[in-house]
Design brief:
With about 290 residues, this protein is an alpha+beta fold. The chain is built from six helices and 13 strands. The termini are far apart.
């Protein structure tokens, strides 16, 4: 009887010692528990770098995966840093709670609830193979942190510099090909080859247009001629790129023209299909077939 009680007492003392000495095993070894099932492990820390503050837009190289290291998504796949809003509070334990205060150049690993991330951030069900109640691991590095106003100013400066660069490219193309043309106020180059005598294209009317689209180097990316039928769209409603809305509005039925469209009147910094890269200058041979 005494021996049994002594054994129980020793077990109780051992348990007390473990707790008092911090010996209770952590869920993720080497990670700091921030509460709400958010765990963080910081690596490089840049004491001189600009720190992420509330209200910033944070650009970071980001990859998230299962805790077993099966990659689910990576910013390398989109070819640029991912942008996060520091003011977003999707749920308690969201990764931004650990990112605030990090500096440009810092890197970390974060672990958070897969259920919460997919439900509140991605707003989609868990992917096949990811169990309910499981966690996700985020590996990230802060590339840049800026206020919204700073980002807008940087974007506008880049767009202005790009517009000047593209205009120089277009002017060289015209000179090399013996073409005399001046840009419109917007920057569109409209080069009329055949003057049509039919009805004028006007905003709000349905127009029918045959076209062939290429890059300046002649690489073709689309052609209604190849399909054997023109396309129809309401003019001036934004259903086509800005360069088309403006260019087609200069035409009468029967007119044939070339449109040379800088990227800011086309797809800007977007990739469109395998041929049209960000900031592509587009060239269209167009023919106004009908106005309804």
């Amino acid at each position: 009887m005494f021996k049994k009680m002594k054994s129980i007492s020793l077990l109780a003392i051992s348990a007390l010692v473990l707790v008092s000495c911090g010996g209770e095993p952590q869920k993720y070894e080497g990670y700091t528990d921030m509460g709400n099932n958010l765990y963080v492990k910081y690596y490089s820390q840049n004491a001189e770098g600009r720190k992420v503050a509330m209200g910033d837009r944070v650009q970071l190289n980001l990859e998230y995966k299962t805790t077993g290291d099966s990659v689910l998504w990576t910013s390398a796949g989109i070819g640029r840093p991912f942008l996060l809003n520091s003011e977003d509070k999707f749920y308690k334990g969201y990764i931004m709670e650990a990112i605030l205060g990090m500096a440009e150049g810092d890197s970390a690993s974060l672990i958070t609830s897969a259920d919460s991330f997919y439900t509140y951030v991605l707003q989609q069900p868990l992917p096949q193979g990811l169990a309910v109640g499981s966690d996700l691991k985020f590996d990230l590095k802060i590339v840049q942190t800026r206020t919204t106003e700073e980002l807008q100013a940087e974007f506008m400066k880049k767009e202005e510099e790009q517009a000047v660069k593209e205009d120089e490219i277009i002017k060289k193309y015209l000179a090399d090909n013996g073409i005399t043309a001046e840009p419109s106020i917007s920057g569109l180059y409209y080069i009329e080859e055949v003057k049509g005598k039919g009805p004028k294209a006007e905003a709000g009317k349905m127009v029918s247009v045959h076209y062939e689209g290429t890059l300046l180097d002649g690489t073709k990316f689309d052609s209604s001629y190849d399909r054997g039928e023109p396309i129809e769209f309401p003019l001036g409603t934004g259903s086509v790129i800005k360069g088309w809305d403006e260019g087609i509005s200069n035409m009468n039925v029967g007119t044939k023209a070339t449109l040379i469209i800088p990227s800011f009147l086309a797809y800007g910094n977007q990739q469109r299909g395998p041929v049209i890269a960000p900031y592509s200058i587009l060239k269209f041979k167009v023919e106004l077939v009908d106005v309804k």
